[in-house]
Amino acid sequence: MTKGLCYVEVMMENTGYCSESFTSLQSAASDEDMVEIAGATLDFSSTEDVPPLDRDFGSVGLENGINGVPKLMDLLDEPVPGVGTYEDFNTIDWVREKSKDRDRLREITNKSKESTWHLMKSINDAFSGWLLMLLVGLMSGALAGGIDISAHWMTDLKEGVCLRGFWFNHEHCCWSSNENTFQERDKCPDWKSWAELLIGYNDGPLAYIMNYLLYVCWALLFSFLAVSLVRAFAPYACGSGIPEIKTILSGFIIRGYLGKWTLMIKTITLVLAVSSGLSLGKEGPLVHVACCCGNILCHLFTKYRKNEAKRREVLSAAAAVGVSVAFGAPIGGVLFSLEEVSYYFPLKTLWRSFFAALVAAFTLRSINPFGNSRLVLFYVEFHSPWHLVELVPFVFLGIFGGIWGAFFIRANIAWCRRRKTTWLGHYPVLEVLVVTAVTAVLAFPNSYTRMSTSELISELFNDCGLLDSSQLCNYENITDIKLSGNTLPDRPAGHDVYTAMWQLSLALIFKMLITVVTFGMKVPSGLFIPSMAVGAIAGRLLGVGMEQLAYYNHDWVIFKGWCSPGADCITPGLYAMVGAAACLGGVTRMTVSLVVIMFELTGGLEYIVPLMAATMTSKWVADALGREGIYEAHIRLNGYPFLEHKEEFSHKTLAMDIMRPRRSDPPLSVITQDGMTVQEVEELIADTTYSGFPVVVSHESQRLVGFVLRRDVVISIDNARLRQEGIVSTSRVFFTEYTPPQPPNFPPSLKLRGIMDLSPFTVTDHTAMDIVVDIFRKLGLRQCLVTHNGRLLGIITKKDILKHMAQIANRDPDSIMFN
């Protein structure tokens, strides 16, 4: 183990990982260097038990050695394009990428002392990270504002159109009208329902049926356009995107997943999917959109374009930007990125994430998409304080949120697994249309399911005041009440309130069931808003119940002393907010970031304790019923190679128990440092599908020299044949520092020491597996070689560890494959 750690120290200072970069051989993906996943069947079997290739943009030129060794022989005058780059569906080498960046910084620092020009370049390099964050914030904020405005307009388009200008939504259309009353402020001459336009009136069964049919038709049209665009142009634009982003941030390569086509199609189809009325939200996909912006803008800056680890720092900040513009919560966005999605989050990334989230929130505020001078649609302020006794119902809401979260995860994963393994997965367009039709048909009769989910949450969060004409606020009027500002005392519920309770109860059941089958379809679909809607409905129902209980029983012991007659004791909107946090926490298992997001939504620090109590209770209950959150469950379902930090490894096994080859396997494929010809190396590559090979002194000694990647060897040999005369199949391949003299009639030899990693990470065969797992997690390793007294025994890859952990958990180890 000590030896392995020494190898890491050597690698971190390895001057062989030079900072000069090369363009990829696959130029078609020049701005889509991050990958695609959704909607495609991906086969990970080609890498067998040796993992991903690395991307050393560095000078892998064959003329340089490692650690400053003397020049061997100039076989190639220029660096080889493609050597050291990463193949699709492979993992980056975090240690090498960080070493490359340190070498680059060291070179810039040394040159900055030589001239003013290099000093200016050094300042520009230091400033480029902040400039990139500024651009990411501006672009993400502008896109989010456009998405919000478009989704609001298209949602209202299902019910009618504005005659004054078809581009106005219902609210904006009626703002400037002088003919509508305060009680009916949503009704104005400029806004016409489809029934009014087609048959001339809006009352009666025929008008109702006409509006009903047009509502369903618009919903089907929007969803059909969304799924068709996703299927035709960007299969990776579907879903939430957060499970894949977590996997990418852990070091995995998924080309095209954060590319320009994905950004374009996801932005358009997100508007269509939200407007169709499906039980989904735009908040999760906005994280994907922001990460696409970050990835694309990285190509403007060399140090981020050529270093995958540096790019992932930008993507971590972009994830924070996505939550910032989704909820209007910049601080919550930074904490969300830190707590939920990021794998590597240094301190400077924290500062830059904060700056980017600030810029994005400012941009969104400048656009003012909701017309209320707020960053979010459901911004509310409560006027009454909460009492200690109310912690009991808040905890009950937390229990409900935990149970709902565990139920939803199991039901959704079961449905998604059925979608993958049955005929249902072969007809994504039909599935989306059927679910949309069912949703629209069932949603229209109930006003609380007909409205958009964001408007529903806004309605449920609302604290009833003097100016509210909502059905939820239609309490019975009582005489001689004392008014204080815009607040009203607790009053008996009227007929409309009881009607609203029944409608909300039906809406709760509907939302709980339809969200299970909606999340995971081949359209952009977020889970934040549907989960919050379920909790907000449950919380509002409980809040009204508590309010009426306190009104009719204010002489009970639990209400004495703080809830006197005529006082505003209970705030049902607060219960809705706590319930929303509880259900979202039960589904995602977020804690700190969720509380901060929720209090940024409401603007009040006074309600942090109820939110904390409900969120922690929700997490405890949900963890007791199932350890995984929804994103971790989807990562496991899709077979992404992601080592979860939260998952503990407690079994007593050793490295020798996990390594390959096993006793029944053929010997490990290796390359000797000076005993093989080009033909023998090519035959070894052709006969295996491994991604890399250990280099040993000889087959007999098995003394480890280094590790070389399959892709680097193939590219180097092909390039040498094209650009150097005399390289044939019988040419000898050397990985040694010095080359022995060759007889005159022998063809020229090929020196490949420059592409070999001289400091591969190693552990001994008796290293405990819990230590190995920690090393893989904390260093982001792809593979680790196992030795005994310096003699190579085998190899452990990230996939081997994931398979072993799956076996321990009584899961199918073959599920650790892309599906």
Describe the structure.
- This protein is mainly alpha-helical and 819 residues long.
- Among the domains are: 151-179 and 189-233, no CATH class; 237-262 and 278-368, no CATH class; 395-403 and 429-476 and 487-628, Clc chloride channel (Orthogonal Bundle), CATH 1.10.3080.10; 655-809, Roll (CBS-domain), CATH 3.10.580.
- Helix content is 52%, strand content 5%.
- It has 28 helices and 11 strands.
- The strands form 4 sheets. A 3-stranded mixed β-sheet has the order 3-5-6. Strands 4-7-8 form a 3-stranded mixed β-sheet.
- Helix 6 packs antiparallel against helix 15 (428-443), helix 14 (391-421) runs parallel beside helix 18 and helix 20 packs parallel to helix 22 (608-625).
- The model is unreliable at 1-77 (pLDDT under 50).
- It is a multi-pass membrane protein.
- It comes from Astyanax mexicanus.
- Belongs to the chloride channel (TC 2.A.49) family.
- GO terms for molecular function: antiporter activity; ATP binding; voltage-gated chloride channel activity.
From the structure above, extract its key features:
about 800 residues; mainly alpha; Clc chloride channel; three-stranded mixed sheet; 11 strands
Radius of gyration: 31 Å
Residues in β-strands, percent: 5-15%
Q: Which architecture name of one domain does CATH use?
A: Orthogonal Bundle
Order of adjacent strands in the largest pleated sheet: 3-5-6
Query: CATH-wise, what's the superfamily of one domain?
Result: Clc chloride channel
Q: What class, by secondary structure content?
A: mainly alpha
Q: Tell me about the largest β-sheet.
A: 3 strands, mixed
Helix amount, in percent? 40-55%
Mean pLDDT: 82
Could you name the ranges where pLDDT drops below 50 across 5 or more consecutive residues? Answer: 1-77
CATH topology of one domain: Clc chloride channel
How many helices? The count is 28
Give the beta-strand count.
11
